[in-house]
Protein backbone atom coordinates (compact mmCIF):
# COMPACT_ATOMS: atom_id res chain seq x y z
CA UNK A 1 0.00 0.00 0.00
CA UNK A 2 1.22 3.48 -0.85
CA UNK A 3 1.02 6.48 1.47
CA UNK A 4 1.57 10.07 0.53
CA UNK A 5 0.25 13.60 0.42
CA UNK A 6 -1.61 15.74 -2.06
CA UNK A 7 -1.81 19.50 -2.33
CA UNK A 8 -4.30 21.88 -3.88
CA UNK A 9 -1.73 24.68 -3.88
CA UNK A 10 -3.92 27.39 -2.37
CA UNK A 11 -2.51 30.79 -1.43
CA UNK A 12 -4.47 31.58 1.71
CA UNK A 13 -4.00 34.18 4.44
CA UNK A 14 -2.82 32.74 7.73
CA UNK A 15 -5.68 33.76 10.07
CA UNK A 16 -3.38 33.81 13.10
CA UNK A 17 -1.00 36.39 11.60
CA UNK A 18 -3.02 38.10 8.86
CA UNK A 19 -0.24 37.41 6.35
CA UNK A 20 -0.53 35.54 3.06
CA UNK A 21 2.46 34.09 1.21
CA UNK A 22 3.22 35.35 -2.26
CA UNK A 23 2.88 33.00 -5.19
CA UNK A 24 6.64 32.49 -5.32
CA UNK A 25 6.79 31.59 -1.64
CA UNK A 26 3.87 29.16 -1.95
CA UNK A 27 5.41 27.41 -4.94
CA UNK A 28 8.74 27.09 -3.15
CA UNK A 29 6.92 25.75 -0.08
CA UNK A 30 5.25 23.04 -2.17
CA UNK A 31 8.64 21.97 -3.51
CA UNK A 32 10.04 21.81 0.02
CA UNK A 33 7.02 19.78 1.16
CA UNK A 34 7.52 17.25 -1.63
CA UNK A 35 11.20 16.79 -0.79
CA UNK A 36 10.33 16.43 2.89
CA UNK A 37 7.78 13.75 1.98
CA UNK A 38 10.57 11.62 0.53
CA UNK A 39 12.84 12.37 3.47
CA UNK A 40 10.29 10.99 5.98
CA UNK A 41 9.63 7.88 3.91
CA UNK A 42 6.34 8.59 2.17
CA UNK A 43 5.64 7.05 -1.23
CA UNK A 44 3.69 9.67 -3.20
CA UNK A 45 3.48 13.40 -3.76
CA UNK A 46 0.53 14.62 -5.83
CA UNK A 47 -0.36 18.13 -6.96
CA UNK A 48 -3.63 19.53 -8.19
CA UNK A 49 -4.09 21.58 -11.35
CA UNK A 50 -5.72 25.00 -11.16
CA UNK A 51 -5.82 28.01 -13.46
CA UNK A 52 -7.28 30.62 -11.15
CA UNK A 53 -6.36 32.48 -7.96
CA UNK A 54 -5.94 31.70 -5.12
CA UNK A 55 -4.25 28.55 -6.49
CA UNK A 56 -0.78 28.33 -8.06
CA UNK A 57 -0.19 24.86 -9.62
CA UNK A 58 -1.17 25.63 -13.21
CA UNK A 59 1.66 23.51 -14.68
CA UNK A 60 1.94 20.23 -12.74
CA UNK A 61 4.51 18.58 -15.00
CA UNK A 62 6.87 21.54 -14.59
CA UNK A 63 6.66 21.20 -10.82
CA UNK A 64 6.93 17.41 -10.84
CA UNK A 65 9.90 17.50 -13.20
CA UNK A 66 11.76 19.73 -10.74
CA UNK A 67 10.87 17.40 -7.87
CA UNK A 68 11.98 14.38 -9.90
CA UNK A 69 15.49 15.82 -10.15
CA UNK A 70 15.69 16.19 -6.37
CA UNK A 71 14.22 12.87 -5.24
CA UNK A 72 15.00 9.22 -5.83
CA UNK A 73 12.04 7.17 -4.66
CA UNK A 74 8.99 9.41 -4.52
CA UNK A 75 6.17 8.62 -6.97
CA UNK A 76 5.14 11.85 -8.66
CA UNK A 77 1.48 12.24 -9.43
CA UNK A 78 -1.31 14.69 -9.97
CA UNK A 79 -4.36 14.89 -7.78
CA UNK A 80 -6.19 16.38 -10.75
CA UNK A 81 -5.23 16.53 -14.41
CA UNK A 82 -8.04 18.28 -16.24
CA UNK A 83 -9.02 15.75 -18.89
CA UNK A 84 -11.85 18.04 -20.01
CA UNK A 85 -9.92 21.19 -20.87
CA UNK A 86 -6.40 19.93 -21.59
CA UNK A 87 -5.74 18.60 -25.06
CA UNK A 88 -5.17 14.80 -24.99
CA UNK A 89 -2.16 15.14 -27.28
CA UNK A 90 -0.49 17.51 -24.82
CA UNK A 91 -1.29 15.25 -21.85
CA UNK A 92 0.12 12.23 -23.69
CA UNK A 93 3.37 13.98 -24.53
CA UNK A 94 3.85 15.88 -21.25
CA UNK A 95 3.45 12.82 -19.04
CA UNK A 96 5.48 10.52 -21.28
CA UNK A 97 8.27 13.10 -21.09
CA UNK A 98 7.91 13.22 -17.30
CA UNK A 99 8.13 9.42 -17.21
CA UNK A 100 11.52 9.57 -18.88
CA UNK A 101 12.75 12.41 -16.66
CA UNK A 102 11.66 10.57 -13.49
CA UNK A 103 12.71 7.06 -14.60
CA UNK A 104 9.12 5.85 -14.40
CA UNK A 105 8.16 7.33 -11.02
CA UNK A 106 5.02 8.88 -12.50
CA UNK A 107 1.28 8.37 -12.55
CA UNK A 108 -1.62 10.80 -12.85
CA UNK A 109 -5.20 11.33 -11.81
CA UNK A 110 -7.76 12.38 -14.37
CA UNK A 111 -10.54 14.68 -13.22
CA UNK A 112 -12.91 17.43 -14.28
CA UNK A 113 -11.94 19.82 -11.49
CA UNK A 114 -14.32 21.92 -9.44
CA UNK A 115 -13.93 25.34 -11.09
CA UNK A 116 -16.71 25.90 -13.61
CA UNK A 117 -15.16 28.94 -15.39
CA UNK A 118 -12.13 26.89 -16.45
CA UNK A 119 -14.17 25.51 -19.37
CA UNK A 120 -14.58 28.78 -21.33
CA UNK A 121 -11.02 29.79 -20.44
CA UNK A 122 -9.90 26.87 -22.60
CA UNK A 123 -12.62 27.17 -25.21
CA UNK A 124 -14.90 24.45 -23.84
CA UNK A 125 -18.51 24.28 -22.67
CA UNK A 126 -19.15 23.02 -19.14
CA UNK A 127 -22.32 21.32 -20.35
CA UNK A 128 -20.06 18.96 -22.29
CA UNK A 129 -18.03 18.05 -19.19
CA UNK A 130 -18.79 14.32 -19.01
CA UNK A 131 -18.68 13.85 -22.79
CA UNK A 132 -15.34 15.67 -22.95
CA UNK A 133 -13.91 13.47 -20.21
CA UNK A 134 -14.99 10.32 -22.05
CA UNK A 135 -13.85 11.31 -25.54
CA UNK A 136 -10.58 12.91 -24.49
CA UNK A 137 -9.55 9.96 -22.39
CA UNK A 138 -10.38 7.47 -25.15
CA UNK A 139 -8.04 9.41 -27.43
CA UNK A 140 -5.34 9.67 -24.77
CA UNK A 141 -5.30 5.90 -24.30
CA UNK A 142 -4.85 5.38 -28.03
CA UNK A 143 -2.04 7.95 -28.18
CA UNK A 144 -0.15 6.02 -25.51
CA UNK A 145 -1.02 2.50 -26.68
CA UNK A 146 -0.63 2.91 -30.44
CA UNK A 147 2.44 4.21 -32.28
CA UNK A 148 0.39 5.70 -35.11
CA UNK A 149 -3.10 7.09 -34.53
CA UNK A 150 -5.77 8.14 -37.00
CA UNK A 151 -8.76 9.54 -35.16
CA UNK A 152 -11.86 11.69 -35.52
CA UNK A 153 -14.13 12.93 -32.73
CA UNK A 154 -16.50 15.68 -31.72
CA UNK A 155 -14.41 18.08 -29.64
CA UNK A 156 -11.07 18.55 -31.42
CA UNK A 157 -9.61 18.45 -34.91
CA UNK A 158 -8.98 14.99 -36.42
CA UNK A 159 -5.61 13.27 -36.34
CA UNK A 160 -4.11 11.58 -39.39
CA UNK A 161 -1.26 9.09 -38.90
CA UNK A 162 -0.10 10.94 -35.79
CA UNK A 163 2.61 9.74 -33.38
CA UNK A 164 2.94 11.42 -30.00
CA UNK A 165 6.50 11.82 -28.74
CA UNK A 166 8.25 10.69 -26.70
CA UNK A 167 6.72 7.24 -26.52
CA UNK A 168 5.90 5.95 -23.02
CA UNK A 169 8.92 4.70 -21.09
CA UNK A 170 9.54 0.96 -21.60
CA UNK A 171 6.41 0.83 -23.73
CA UNK A 172 4.19 1.18 -20.65
CA UNK A 173 2.06 4.29 -20.20
CA UNK A 174 1.75 5.99 -16.81
CA UNK A 175 -0.83 4.40 -14.55
CA UNK A 176 -4.04 6.40 -14.49
CA UNK A 177 -6.38 7.05 -11.59
CA UNK A 178 -9.77 8.59 -12.29
CA UNK A 179 -10.73 10.98 -9.52
CA UNK A 180 -14.31 11.88 -8.76
CA UNK A 181 -16.27 13.07 -5.77
CA UNK A 182 -19.79 12.69 -7.13
CA UNK A 183 -19.93 11.46 -10.76
CA UNK A 184 -20.80 7.78 -11.29
CA UNK A 185 -19.90 8.17 -14.97
CA UNK A 186 -16.25 8.65 -13.97
CA UNK A 187 -16.28 5.55 -11.74
CA UNK A 188 -17.73 3.70 -14.73
CA UNK A 189 -14.96 5.03 -16.98
CA UNK A 190 -12.25 3.89 -14.56
CA UNK A 191 -13.84 0.44 -14.38
CA UNK A 192 -14.17 0.13 -18.16
CA UNK A 193 -10.45 0.68 -18.74
CA UNK A 194 -9.32 -1.28 -15.68
CA UNK A 195 -7.73 1.87 -14.29
CA UNK A 196 -7.66 3.04 -10.68
CA UNK A 197 -10.45 4.98 -9.00
CA UNK A 198 -9.65 7.69 -6.44
CA UNK A 199 -12.18 9.27 -4.11
CA UNK A 200 -10.90 12.36 -2.33
CA UNK A 201 -12.78 11.35 0.81
CA UNK A 202 -12.79 14.81 2.34
CA UNK A 203 -16.12 16.59 1.96
CA UNK A 204 -18.57 13.68 1.95
CA UNK A 205 -19.73 11.21 4.60
CA UNK A 206 -18.55 7.60 4.57
CA UNK A 207 -21.85 6.39 3.13
CA UNK A 208 -21.32 8.41 -0.05
CA UNK A 209 -17.73 7.25 -0.50
CA UNK A 210 -18.86 3.67 0.05
CA UNK A 211 -21.45 3.94 -2.72
CA UNK A 212 -18.99 5.39 -5.23
CA UNK A 213 -16.24 2.86 -4.48
CA UNK A 214 -18.71 -0.05 -4.52
CA UNK A 215 -20.03 1.04 -7.91
CA UNK A 216 -16.50 1.15 -9.30
CA UNK A 217 -15.63 -2.27 -7.87
CA UNK A 218 -18.79 -3.88 -9.27
CA UNK A 219 -18.24 -2.43 -12.73
CA UNK A 220 -14.54 -3.33 -12.69
CA UNK A 221 -15.57 -6.96 -12.26
CA UNK A 222 -18.32 -6.58 -14.86
CA UNK A 223 -15.74 -5.59 -17.48
CA UNK A 224 -13.66 -8.67 -16.73
CA UNK A 225 -10.61 -7.13 -15.08
CA UNK A 226 -10.85 -9.26 -11.94
CA UNK A 227 -12.94 -9.59 -8.82
CA UNK A 228 -14.36 -6.51 -7.08
CA UNK A 229 -11.71 -6.97 -4.40
CA UNK A 230 -8.96 -6.72 -7.03
CA UNK A 231 -10.02 -3.27 -8.23
CA UNK A 232 -7.47 -0.52 -7.63
CA UNK A 233 -8.78 2.07 -5.16
CA UNK A 234 -7.25 5.21 -3.69
CA UNK A 235 -8.60 7.45 -0.96
CA UNK A 236 -7.83 10.93 0.26
CA UNK A 237 -8.03 12.19 3.79
CA UNK A 238 -7.40 15.35 5.72
CA UNK A 239 -5.51 15.49 8.99
CA UNK A 240 -3.99 17.84 11.50
CA UNK A 241 -1.97 16.44 14.40
CA UNK A 242 -0.32 17.38 17.62
CA UNK A 243 0.90 15.23 20.48
CA UNK A 244 -2.46 15.48 22.17
CA UNK A 245 -5.85 16.12 20.64
CA UNK A 246 -6.64 19.27 22.65
CA UNK A 247 -3.58 21.04 21.28
CA UNK A 248 -4.42 19.94 17.73
CA UNK A 249 -8.00 21.24 17.93
CA UNK A 250 -6.96 24.53 19.50
CA UNK A 251 -4.26 25.19 16.91
CA UNK A 252 -6.22 24.08 13.84
CA UNK A 253 -9.54 25.75 14.67
CA UNK A 254 -8.75 29.23 13.27
CA UNK A 255 -7.47 27.68 10.04
CA UNK A 256 -10.60 25.56 9.70
CA UNK A 257 -12.94 28.44 10.52
CA UNK A 258 -11.42 30.66 7.82
CA UNK A 259 -10.58 28.10 5.14
CA UNK A 260 -11.77 29.20 1.68
CA UNK A 261 -13.53 25.88 1.02
CA UNK A 262 -15.41 25.10 4.23
CA UNK A 263 -14.84 28.07 6.51
CA UNK A 264 -17.81 29.94 7.97
CA UNK A 265 -19.96 26.82 7.64
CA UNK A 266 -20.32 23.79 9.93
CA UNK A 267 -18.25 23.83 13.10
CA UNK A 268 -15.01 21.89 13.31
CA UNK A 269 -16.70 19.37 15.57
CA UNK A 270 -19.61 18.91 13.14
CA UNK A 271 -17.28 18.52 10.18
CA UNK A 272 -15.03 15.96 11.87
CA UNK A 273 -18.05 13.91 12.95
CA UNK A 274 -19.62 13.89 9.47
CA UNK A 275 -16.54 13.59 7.22
CA UNK A 276 -13.11 11.88 7.40
CA UNK A 277 -11.35 15.06 8.59
CA UNK A 278 -9.28 14.05 11.62
CA UNK A 279 -7.90 16.66 14.01
CA UNK A 280 -6.16 15.09 16.97
CA UNK A 281 -3.28 12.90 18.04
CA UNK A 282 -1.30 10.57 15.78
CA UNK A 283 -3.12 7.63 17.36
CA UNK A 284 -6.47 9.14 16.46
CA UNK A 285 -5.31 9.56 12.86
CA UNK A 286 -4.18 5.92 12.79
CA UNK A 287 -7.51 4.66 14.12
CA UNK A 288 -9.59 6.85 11.81
CA UNK A 289 -7.58 5.92 8.73
CA UNK A 290 -7.80 2.21 9.49
CA UNK A 291 -11.57 2.63 9.67
CA UNK A 292 -11.65 3.66 5.99
CA UNK A 293 -11.22 -0.02 5.19
CA UNK A 294 -14.61 -0.72 6.81
CA UNK A 295 -16.46 1.05 4.00
CA UNK A 296 -13.97 1.13 1.11
CA UNK A 297 -12.51 -2.36 1.43
CA UNK A 298 -8.83 -3.13 1.03
CA UNK A 299 -7.31 -0.37 -1.06
CA UNK A 300 -3.97 0.57 -2.56
CA UNK A 301 -3.24 4.27 -1.98
CA UNK A 302 -3.86 6.70 0.86
CA UNK A 303 -3.10 10.40 0.34
CA UNK A 304 -3.41 13.05 3.03
CA UNK A 305 -4.10 16.77 2.62
CA UNK A 306 -2.01 18.67 5.15
CA UNK A 307 -0.88 22.00 3.66
CA UNK A 308 -4.00 24.05 2.95
CA UNK A 309 -5.93 26.92 4.57
CA UNK A 310 -2.91 29.12 5.26
CA UNK A 311 -0.95 26.72 7.44
CA UNK A 312 2.67 27.93 7.60
CA UNK A 313 5.40 25.80 6.06
CA UNK A 314 7.00 25.08 9.44
CA UNK A 315 3.74 23.57 10.67
CA UNK A 316 3.29 21.48 7.52
CA UNK A 317 6.81 20.07 7.84
CA UNK A 318 6.03 19.15 11.46
CA UNK A 319 2.93 17.32 10.21
CA UNK A 320 5.14 15.39 7.79
CA UNK A 321 7.46 14.38 10.62
CA UNK A 322 4.49 13.02 12.55
CA UNK A 323 3.21 11.15 9.49
CA UNK A 324 6.60 9.64 8.73
CA UNK A 325 7.62 8.76 12.27
CA UNK A 326 4.41 7.87 14.10
CA UNK A 327 1.52 7.31 11.69
CA UNK A 328 2.54 5.71 8.41
CA UNK A 329 4.78 2.95 9.87
CA UNK A 330 1.85 1.74 11.99
CA UNK A 331 -0.61 2.03 9.08
CA UNK A 332 1.71 0.04 6.81
CA UNK A 333 1.90 -2.78 9.32
CA UNK A 334 -1.78 -2.83 10.23
CA UNK A 335 -3.10 -2.62 6.68
CA UNK A 336 -0.67 -5.36 5.60
CA UNK A 337 -1.84 -7.63 8.40
CA UNK A 338 -5.49 -7.09 7.45
CA UNK A 339 -5.04 -7.51 3.69
CA UNK A 340 -6.30 -10.84 2.33
CA UNK A 341 -4.33 -12.82 -0.20
CA UNK A 342 -5.27 -11.90 -3.74
CA UNK A 343 -5.66 -8.17 -3.17
CA UNK A 344 -3.18 -6.52 -5.56
CA UNK A 345 -0.40 -4.20 -4.48
CA UNK A 346 -0.39 -0.56 -5.49
CA UNK A 347 0.70 -0.16 -9.12
CA UNK A 348 4.28 0.86 -9.88
CA UNK A 349 6.07 1.32 -13.17
CA UNK A 350 8.46 -1.56 -12.51
CA UNK A 351 5.65 -3.96 -11.67
CA UNK A 352 3.65 -2.96 -14.75
CA UNK A 353 6.67 -3.37 -17.03
CA UNK A 354 7.24 -6.84 -15.57
CA UNK A 355 3.58 -7.73 -16.06
CA UNK A 356 3.67 -6.55 -19.68
CA UNK A 357 6.73 -8.71 -20.33
CA UNK A 358 5.32 -11.84 -18.66
CA UNK A 359 4.38 -14.72 -20.99
CA UNK A 360 0.68 -14.87 -21.81
CA UNK A 361 -1.37 -17.56 -20.15
CA UNK A 362 -2.82 -20.33 -22.30
CA UNK A 363 -6.24 -18.66 -22.15
CA UNK A 364 -4.80 -15.28 -23.17
CA UNK A 365 -2.86 -16.86 -26.02
CA UNK A 366 -6.02 -18.46 -27.38
CA UNK A 367 -7.79 -15.10 -27.22
TrEMBL record:
Keywords: Monooxygenase, Oxidoreductase
Gene3D superfamilies, per the entry: Luciferase-like domain
Superkingdom of this protein's organism: Bacteria
Domain Luciferase-like: 1-294
Family matches, as InterPro entries: Bact_Lucif_Oxidored, LLM_FMN-dep_put, Luciferase-like_dom, Luciferase-like_sf
Signal peptide: none
CDD domains noted in UniProt: Flavin_utilizing_monoxygenases
UniProt keyword annotation of Chaperone present: no
Pfam families assigned to the protein according to its UniProt record, in alphabetical order: Bac_luciferase
Protein name from the UniProt record: LLM class flavin-dependent oxidoreductase
